[in-house]
Structure formats: C-alpha cells, structure tokens
Amino acid sequence: MGFFDNILGNLPEVRGPTQKRLSFKEKMKWTGIVLVLFFILGLIPLFGLGANELSRFEFLSIILGAEFGSIISLGIGPIVTASIVLQLLNGSGIVKFDLTSHEGKKRFQGVQKMLSFFFIIFEAAIYVFMGGLSPASNLPSQMYLQMEIFLIIQIFIGGLLIMFMDEVVSKWGFGSGISLFIAAGVSKQIFIRALSWLPSPTNPDIATGAIPALFQSLGRGQPDTAILMLSTVVVTIVIFVMAVYGQAMKVEIPLSFGRVRGHGIRWPLAFIYVSNIPVILIAALLANVQLWASLMQNWALKSGSAVINWISIYIFGQIETADAGHGLVQWVNPPQIITSIVTNSLRWQDMYHALGYMVILVAGSVVFGYFWVQTAGMDARSQARQIMASGLQVPGFRKDQRVLERLLDRYIGPLTIMGSIFVGILAASADIMGALSNGTGILLSVMIIYRLYEDIAKQHMMDMNPMMRRFME
C-alpha cells in the first residue's frame, strides 16, 4: 500500500488556507469568483462541435451542473459518479476504508479523486465516441478522428476545472462546489421559466416564462394554458415551502457537561438528517440512465448492429422513436399528471408510471441515505465519539460511549429513513406535478441555499462578535 499511498498523496489538489479560520469576506470572495467563473465557462462552446445530441436533456444538465455543448459539458457528473461507486464498494465491504482514522479518510478522499480523474476521461470519450457530442459529419475520416480527440481534450480540461473549482469552494468558500453549481443551474432555470418574456419556441404567441404567459393566456381567452401556467408556479411554491419546513425541523437531545453540574446543551439532529446527498446521488444515477439511453440510441443508429439495437430498445429504452415504450428510460422520465388532467388525456398507465417513478426515487434516496450515513461519519457510533470528545454526556447516566450510542441510535436510524423518504416524495411530486424546474433540482437548491445561509450567518456572527469567535474556537 506504500506505493499506492504515495500516488494518492501526490495527486494534484488545491492547497488549503494556512490560517485556522478564514474571514467572512475572504470566503465570500472565493465563492463569488468560482460562481462567476462557472457561468463564464458555461458560455464557452466546444471548438469543432458539430451535432449536440445532448442539448435536449435539460433535466440531466441541471442535475449534473453542466452545460452540454460547452467546455463544462461533464459538470459534476464524474465527481458524483466516483462518489457513488466508492460508497457502494465501501458499503458492501468489497473495498474497506477505516473512516474513523485520519489516514483512512485521507486514503478514501485520494481514491475518490483518482476515480474522478478516470471518470472524467471515460465520460468525455463516451460523450464523443457514442455521438452525444460529435464533430461535423462532412469532415474526412482522418480529420474526423482528430477532431473527436480534440473534443475529448477540451471536455477533459473542463472536467478538471470543475473538480478544482469544487475544491476551491470547499477549502476557501462556503459549502461545496457541487452544491453551488447545482443551485446556480436550478436558480437560472427557475428565473428563466418564471419571468422570461421571450416567445416560446413551441408557441410564439405566448412567453416562455410562466408568469408572463399566465397573463397573456388570460388576455387571449385561453383558460387551459392559464391553468397550466398557474399550476407550475403554485407547485413550485408549495415544494419550496415544504422543503424549508422539513429543513427547519429538528430533534434536540439534552446533554450535560459532566464536570459542570447544572449546565448543558441540546444536541440537534435535523429531520432531514442526510441533507441533500441521497437525492443528489439517486438523481445523478437516473440522469446517467437517461444519458446512456441516448448514447446507446445514437450508437445503434450509427453501427447498425442488431445486438446494440436490441440493448438500446429493451434494456435502456429509446425516446421519440417507433420503438419507444420499453427499457429503463421510460421509468426515469416522470409523466406530467397535471398537464394530462387539463388536456383531458390522463390514462391509467400514467398513474402506474407516476407511482413507479416515485417508488424508484424514494427507494433510491433511502438506500443512498443509509450508505451516506455509514460512510460519512454520521452514524450513531461516530456521533457518540464526537460528543464524548466534547465533554458531554447523557444526564442521569454514567459517562459511557455505549450508553450515548444506544440513545443516538434510536433517533439517527429513523431520521435517516424518514428524511430520505421525505426528500424522495418531494422531488418525485414536483416532477410529476410539473414544477418550474425538476423536483430534485428545486429540492437541492432549497437545501443548498438554506445551508449556505446558515453557514454565512454563522460566519458573519463570528466576525462581528469577538467573544462569540473565541467561544466557537
């Protein structure tokens, strides 16, 4: 393991700050710089790009924090995929990391970064060679191959930039880059879909934004369109309110200082204990299914192979073709229930489809939530060890980690399951009911912005009050 650890220790990384605590202005500066850079990179097109078959997957681009056809076409996909693979390997015991020790955590992070490098190269090659992002078709064969390699290099550079920008935010800013990129993409999409006055591509007489379109449709005497626009706004607001309400709910466990009688604190455990991580992971998995379905569909058309065509139709599924209606992709694309009701086209198959989609999202959130708690040091044993190290104990009991662990286990297990179910139902409901953005994106943005607000408020309070800063240190 010495040689392997040597490789992991020499992987390129963003150097962290030397001072113990960064100021509020410093963190805000780096967060703002990375956010502006993210939007700028999303506007830089890939040189030599011909066909962009991925442009129709807007849902996928939001979840991946990507802009298909730009230099950041990969987004956070390789980072999240590496995290999913490593968590599954560690959770199943195939590869074991001692996450209770500093060396074990360092090795886990190093292996995750190495996997991220691999998936950046792998996904860039897949995007190009399978026809998702390809050069102009009229190029000579030799030049076509050279242009494909050049596209892969550009996408690879963009993937590296996203990975290092994530590290900059994690070490120098607020929160994480992954969360920041998702929140930025969702916020941009909601702003455009809610307020844009530009004409809709499908209906030039109606604006793209739901609010302008609502008033325009009322003025033109189109009640069906007005109801659809109003429902998207209402559903989005309801999902926002429910997400904030769930984020604010907490279970507080009373603890006392063993050496100081009469003094204690309440240790908070959030209802959404696993935060937004499980829904990020399951959404990324479903997004990858959609992506692979599109790539396999293009590959089947290019190769003409009967085997590839069968896999494309019956395993992954196809979209907008005569063979559509099979495969995994049909279950990871939610039906629009409100639209079907308003247009009087609702079928029983749509209800089964909606139920199946919700079950997949809820079950996936629970599974990834459980794995995340076990691998991220959020389980009862790790939390009990952290509390004991702070000099706290359960009132009325002797200072024993096992007692505290049993108490925490009563709450952490149920909170993990219930919180994961809650976020899964919210995300699926927003998708099925047709909100301004996909449900996972809305849920993620609410939780990310809420957590970011808490971090900023805490940092601002520490900067403004020297006594509070000394206490927190």
Protein model, in words:
The strands form two sheets. Strands 4-3-5 form a three-stranded antiparallel beta sheet, with helices on one face. The chain has 473 residues and is mainly alpha-helical. The chain is 66% helix and 5% strand. The radius of gyration is 24 Å and the shape is globular. β3 and β4 (264-270) form a beta hairpin. α2 (24-42) packs across α7.
Put the structure in a nutshell.
With 473 residues, this protein is mainly alpha-helical.
- Give the ordered list of helices and strands: HHEHHHEHHHHEEHHHHHEHHH
CATH class of the largest domain: Mainly Alpha
Would you identify the regions where 5 or more consecutive residues have pLDDT less than 50?
A: none
Helix share, percent: 55-70%
Please give the radius of gyration in angstroms: 24 Å
Query: Quick check: average pLDDT?
Result: 79
Counting DSSP H or I runs of 4 or more residues, the number of helices is 17
Structural class of the helices, strands and pairings?
Answer: mainly alpha
Beta-strand level of the residues, as a percent range?
5-15%
Domain count, please report it: 2
Report the major sheet: 3 strands, antiparallel
How are the SSEs placed, and which strands pair?
Layout: H1 2-9, H2 24-42, E1 49-52, H3 58-63, H4 77-92, H5 102-129, E2 133-135, H6 141-172, H7 177-195, H8 210-219, H9 223-248, E3 250-257, E4 264-270, H10 277-303, H11 306-316, H12 337-342, H13 348-375, H14 380-389, E5 392-393, H15 401-433, H16 439-464, H17 466-472
